[in-house]
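Re-running Rho-related protein racA-like to confirm reproducibility after the cluster update. Everything else is unchanged from the original entry.
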Amino acid sequence: MARCDVMAAMLGGAFMEGRNSSETEIKEASLESFLAILEYLYTDHAPIEEGDAIDIMVLADRFCLPRLVTLCELYITKKVDKMIEKKVSDGAEYVVNLLLLSQAHNAHQLSNWCLHFIATNYLIFESNPSFTLVQGTNIEYVEKHRWPPLSYLNEVQEFEKKVGHTSKKGKCSIM
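Result of re-run:
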């Protein structure tokens, strides 16, 4: 209770959990993730590597533990890096879902990382069916910061039109 205001309010206040001293049910949380939260509260160390980092992050947000959310964000980005080591498209759907989840659970660094990742790998994500889930301000950001930018693609297209007209001798029609 000393390191978590939410637990202090739950267990020390007038809430149902505080009145029932023998047992408190934490809904929508796995035992493994809750034990990771408790370990973090007692030792300032979270066994994120051994557990489900996303579940721990969601639970950390629920219990208002921003430092633990940040630790989970870091671990999750490293997990994505390993996932896409050979092929970025392998993690496209995962990253889109991660973006939406991180925005719902106050993982701001992770959501910014996901947006940047999607924007810099735009052509890969654009062809993925899950890309339709990127909407509103998310799609605005991605479109604005996409790589390669539309201006570049338009210039390449214009160049190819001009270069595409070659004479029979293989020389460019411009020269």
